[in-house]
Write a sequence for this structure.
C-alpha cells in the first residue's frame, strides 16, 4: 500500500503541474483540438496514455524485489513525449538485473527512465511536516503553500510576497538541501456578486464541455479512471 501511495502522489503532483501549465493557454483552440485529437486516436487504438497495467506490474515487482528505502517515487513525464515516459526514482543505483527485468515489463507503448535522487518521498514528507507555519507567520513571513515535488525531489515552500530576505530566513531554519522557496500565490476569495457570476459561468462551461468534449474534462476523467483501476 505504501508503494501505491507513492505512485498516486507522484502522478497527482505531476498532473497538477501540467494543469497549471495549461491554464494560460486554456483558450487556445488549436491546442485544445490537437490534444483532444490525440486522446481520441489513443482511445481508438486501445492505447492507455497512463500505462496503467504496466505501472501496476512494475509496482508489484518493486514491492517484492527492491528495498522500500531505496525506491523514491514514480511519475510520468509528458514533456519528453506525448504518451509520457515512466520515470522511476531511486536513492541509489539499482542493479542492471533489476533494470533489465523492469524494462521487460514494458509494452510497446511505454518507455521508462531510471534516475537517482537524494531523498525518498517519505523523507520529503517528513521535512515538509517540520515547517512551522505559525512560527514563520509570527516572524512576518506569509507561507501560502507547501508541497512535496517528487519531480524536483524537493519540498516547495511558497511565500507571498517573495523576497530573498524571507527566503533566507526559511533556508536558515530548515536548510537548503531539501527545500526550495518560491513565489506563492494567494487564493482569491470571491464576494457574493462574483461568486454568483462564477457559478453561472461554471454552468455554462459544463454545458459547453458536454457538447464539445472539452479536453480538460477528458483528462480529468482519464486520471479518475486510472485511480479507480489502481484501487
Amino acid at each position: 500500500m505504501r508503494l501505491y501511495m507513492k505512485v498516486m502522489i507522484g502522478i497527482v503532483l505531476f498532473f497538477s503541474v501540467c494543469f497549471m501549465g495549461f491554464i494560460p493557454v486554456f483558450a487556445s483552440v488549436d491546442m485544445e483540438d490537437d490534444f483532444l485529437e490525440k486522446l481520441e486516436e489513443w482511445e481508438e487504438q486501445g492505447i492507455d496514455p497512463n500505462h496503467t497495467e504496466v505501472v501496476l506490474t512494475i509496482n508489484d515487482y518493486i514491492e517484492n524485489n527492491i528495498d522500500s528505502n531505496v525506491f523514491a517515487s514514480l511519475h510520468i513525464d509528458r514533456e519528453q513525449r506525448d504518451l509520457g515516459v515512466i520515470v522511476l526514482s531511486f536513492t541509489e543505483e539499482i542493479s542492471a538485473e533489476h533494470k533489465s527485468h523492469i524494462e521487460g515489463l514494458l509494452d510497446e507503448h511505454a518507455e521508462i527512465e531510471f534516475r537517482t535522487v537524494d531523498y525518498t518521498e517519505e523523507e520529503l514528507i517528513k521535512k515538509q511536516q517540520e515547517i512551522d507555519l505559525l512560527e514563520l507567520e509570527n516572524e512576518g513571513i506569509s507561507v501560502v503553500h507547501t508541497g512535496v515535488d517528487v519531480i524536483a525531489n524537493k519540498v516547495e515552500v511558497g511565500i507571498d510576497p517573495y523576497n530573498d530576505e524571507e527566503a533566507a530566513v526559511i533556508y536558515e531554519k530548515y536548510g537548503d538541501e531539501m527545500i526550495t522557496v518560491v513565489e506563492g500565490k494567494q487564493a482569491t476569495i470571491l464576494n457574493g456578486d462574483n461568486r454568483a457570476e462564477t457559478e453561472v459561468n461554471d454552468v455554462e462551461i459544463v454545458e459547453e464541455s458536454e457538447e464539445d468534449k472539452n479536453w480538460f474534462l477528458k483528462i480529468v476523467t482519464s486520471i479518475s479512471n486510472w485511480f479507480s483501476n489502481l484501487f
Observations:
- The chain is about 55% helix and 15% strand.
- The chain has two domains: 2-117, 122-183.
- Strands lie at 71-77, 85-90, 112-116, 143-149, 154-159, 179-183.
